[in-house]
């Protein structure tokens, strides 16, 4: 099963402000420019979402992804969920196995940072589609919640948009060098 971490980040690698806010993204939402979102969304058949991201989405109103099943990774009862959202307390690998039994093949890892880290630690992210906003937040929630293993990526595509957004699409390379050379210390 393929997992795509499709995410927007600031130039300094943050996906939200320190408080979890996303208002800084609104300056880059231009009418008629979806930055490839529609095509991407059509390419996935399921969603993987963390609890904080889910709660934030639900603050905006109705669940916006009604046509796709979603696994909500949570350790506490989320209460009433939309019918497409299934609370899930097991590991990322078990989540993918569950989706595979439903015939799903390609999932969007919506976030957040801790869930992305958990998937990355198990080597489960196939692709990274990162939209870089030309803004330095100076702090906030990073792309990943903690450190993880070294991963070698292959650039599949890079795109730039009139809004200033740059989109980088990487595929995880199966060959990961055991040791990366370290630069010699400068005298």
Fold and architecture overview:
The chain contains 4 helices and 10 strands. It has 187 residues and is of the alpha/beta class. The chain has a single domain, classed as Dihydrofolate Reductase, subunit A (3-Layer(aba) Sandwich). The strands form 2 sheets. The chain has an 8-stranded mixed beta sheet with strand order 5-4-3-6-1-7-10-9. It starts with a strand and ends in a 15-residue tail after the last strand. The model has no long low-confidence stretch (mean pLDDT 89).
Task: Tell me briefly what this model is.
An eight-stranded mixed β-sheet has the order 5-4-3-6-1-7-10-9. Strands 2-8 form a two-stranded antiparallel ribbon.
Key terms for this structure?
single chain, 187 residues, eight-stranded mixed β-sheet, two-stranded antiparallel sheet, 4 helices, globular
CATH T-level topology:
Dihydrofolate Reductase, subunit A
Distance between the termini: 48 Å
CATH superfamily: Dihydrofolate Reductase, subunit A
Q: What form results from the Cα inertia axes?
A: globular
Question: How many separate domains make up the residues?
Answer: 1
Q: Architecture, CATH level 2? A: 3-Layer(aba) Sandwich
Major pleated sheet? 8 strands, mixed
* DSSP helical segment count: 4
Walk me through the topology.
Blueprint: E1 2-10, E2 14-16, H1 37-43, E3 46-50, H2 51-59, E4 70-73, E5 85-88, H3 92-101, E6 106-111, H4 113-121, E7 127-133, E8 141-142, E9 153-160, E10 166-172
Parallel strand pairs: 1-6, 1-7, 3-4, 3-6, 4-5
Antiparallel strand pairs: 2-8, 7-10, 9-10
């Amino acid at each position: 099963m393929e997992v795509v971490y499709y995410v927007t980040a600031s130039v300094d690698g943050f996906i939200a402000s320190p408080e979890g806010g996303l208002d800084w993204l609104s300056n880059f939402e231009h009418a008629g420019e979806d930055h490839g979102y529609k095509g991407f969304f059509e390419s996935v058949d399921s969603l993987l979402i963390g609890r904080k991201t889910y709660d934030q989405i639900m603050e905006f109103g109705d669940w916006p992804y009604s046509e796709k099943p979603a696994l909500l990774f949570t350790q506490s009862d989320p209460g009433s969920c939309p019918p497409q959202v299934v609370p899930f307390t097991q590991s990322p690998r078990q989540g993918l196995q569950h989706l595979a039994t439903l015939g799903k093949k390609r999932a969007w890892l919506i976030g957040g940072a801790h869930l992305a880290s958990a998937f990355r630690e198990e080597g489960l992210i196939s692709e990274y589609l990162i939209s870089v906003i030309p803004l330095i937040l100076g702090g906030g929630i990073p792309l990943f919640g903690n450190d993880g293993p070294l991963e070698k990526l292959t650039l599949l595509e890079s795109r730039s948009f009139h809004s200033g957004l740059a989109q980088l699409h990487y595929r995880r390379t199966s060959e990961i060098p055991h040791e990366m050379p370290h630069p010699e210390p400068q005298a």
